């Protein structure tokens, strides 16, 4: 049984692997290389084809800009099955953009610190992997320096995102209140995602108008960070993004210590780490809700909703034992009734929850993977094991879907699997869960 499902996962990954040495998240729907997908995908490969794992990391890091920025999509190839593509994003507008690859001018969560660390744990030939890490690690470090230098607006260790696509949790209800502060033009364009996936499971046309408009504002200023910070209507501190940065700082420190030398980099990371942890706990923890929340910098207020990102700091080690316990209690109380799989991407008790619509409610395997490791880190093993078991059951029963309905008995559909099928990170992380 275990071998069978692992073999299926391997098939999914191998079919999505492309000649250029990178892996698409899902055929048709996502035909390029995405930043955080690529990290999770590398972990799946590492268990059975270490060369592909290395290539995956190399190809994404090769698209780094001269200022350390790593884009969220790298357009290695042409494809007309996705919108918006390279012609819309126009990364060349930024003077320090990669000359080699076209990309977007926005980023995604900085997963590569902990990805390199996990690759080291998985690899049989530790010296060979350490040599590989030694060649790549400065790029990841430079990416962290980029964030602290350009995106830590208040010098409190918390870095902002300027677009909902940077969060990875694209159409979350978290952003609804921000959309009401904007009035973007009605764009004319042909949606491609809804030709692959039922429209009821994707963002609305009006939501896309908002997404495109923020990019247009950034483009008007050649993707200049300072201008974006001044003008973007979307400017948010995300507990998921910052928790991942903190977890990756920690991994980089460990790896540099393992490699030897690099004291200046270790010192910088340690210093930032303290600030980031304290910023996260003081600015993003919401006592009333008992979890971390997002912060809208443009309107200077917390965004007081619970979602799976609210628990992501568990993975970073930022919460102390008391806070970790609180987080687990909140998760159980609001997301964990017996009739549900963990962990819905948005608060199932809230009226904005939608069990089928993308990041407005469904369960995502990459979030579950981080929550599993976060809960384990704090010794909250029962809940961790439930998350892992739920993830495996969802995939075994439904297939390698992009996201899943959290309701165990689902009145709306025969399957709990939605979005793209043969989805790479669902396959990769199943392998990592089972090996
Ligand atoms: C989804 O996002 C892209 C835009 O980046 C899209 O909807 O077109 C998100 O789930 C994101 O987190 C993910 O990285 C990407 C590719 O899987 O798809």
UniProtKB/TrEMBL annotation:
Residue ranges constituting the Mannosylglycerate hydrolase MGH1-like glycoside hydrolase domain according to the UniProt record: 30-426
Entry-linked SUPFAM superfamilies: Six-hairpin glycosidases (SSF48208)
Keyword field: Glycosidase, Hydrolase
The organism's place on the tree of life at top rank: Bacteria
Record flagged with keyword Ligase: no
Gene3D superfamilies: 1.50.10.10
The family this protein is said to belong to: Belongs to the glycosyl hydrolase 63 family.
Protein's name according to its UniProt entry: Trehalase family glycosidase
Organism: Croceitalea rosinachiae
């Amino acid at each position: 049984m275990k071998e069978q499902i692992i073999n299926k996962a391997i098939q999914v990954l191998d079919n999505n692997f492309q000649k250029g040495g990178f892996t698409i998240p899902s055929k048709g729907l996502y035909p390029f290389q995405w930043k955080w997908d690529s990290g999770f995908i590398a972990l799946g490969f590492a268990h059975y084809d270490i060369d592909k794992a290395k290539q995956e990391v190399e190809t994404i890091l090769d698209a780094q800009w001269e200022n350390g920025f790593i884009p969220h999509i790298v357009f290695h190839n042409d494809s007309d099955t996705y919108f918006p593509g390279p012609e819309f994003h126009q990364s060349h507008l930024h003077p320090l953009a990669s000359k080699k690859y076209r990309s977007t001018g926005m980023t995604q969560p900085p997963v590569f610190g902990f990805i390199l660390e996990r690759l080291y744990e998985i690899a049989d030939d530790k010296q060979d992997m350490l040599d590989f890490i030694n060649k790549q690690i400065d790029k990841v470090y430079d990416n962290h320096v980029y964030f602290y230098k350009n995106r830590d607006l208040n010098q409190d260790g918390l870095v902002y995102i300027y677009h909902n696509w940077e969060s990875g949790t694209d159409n979350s209800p978290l952003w609804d209140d921000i959309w009401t502060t904007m009035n973007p033009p009605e764009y004319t364009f042909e949606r491609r995602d809804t030709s692959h996936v039922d429209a009821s499971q994707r963002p609305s046309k009006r939501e896309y108008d908002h997404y495109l408009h923020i990019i247009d504002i950034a483009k008007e200023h050649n993707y200049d960070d300072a201008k974006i910070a001044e003008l973007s209507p979307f400017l948010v501190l995300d507990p998921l993004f910052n928790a991942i940065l903190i977890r990756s700082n920690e991994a980089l420190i460990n790896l540099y210590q393992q490699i030897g030398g690099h004291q200046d980099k270790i010192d910088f990371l340690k210093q930032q780490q303290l600030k980031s942890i304290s910023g996260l706990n003081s600015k993003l923890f919401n006592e009333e809700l008992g979890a971390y929340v997002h912060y809208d910098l443009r309107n200077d207020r917390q965004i007081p909703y619970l979602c799976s990102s609210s628990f992501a700091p568990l993975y970073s080690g930022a919460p102390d034992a008391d806070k970790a316990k609180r987080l687990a209690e909140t998760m159980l109380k609001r997301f964990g009734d017996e009739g549900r799989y963990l962990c819905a991407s948005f608060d199932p008790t809230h009226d904005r929850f939608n069990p089928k619509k993308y990041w407005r409610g469904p369960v995502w395997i990459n979030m579950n993977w981080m929550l599993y490791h976060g809960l384990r880190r704090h010794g909250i093993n029962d809940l961790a094991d439930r998350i892992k078991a739920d993830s495996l059951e969802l995939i075994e029963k439904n297939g390698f879907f992009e996201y899943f309905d959290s309701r165990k008995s689902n009145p709306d559909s025969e399957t709990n699997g939605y979005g793209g099928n043969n989805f790479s990170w669902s396959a990769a992380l199943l392998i990592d869960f089972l090996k």
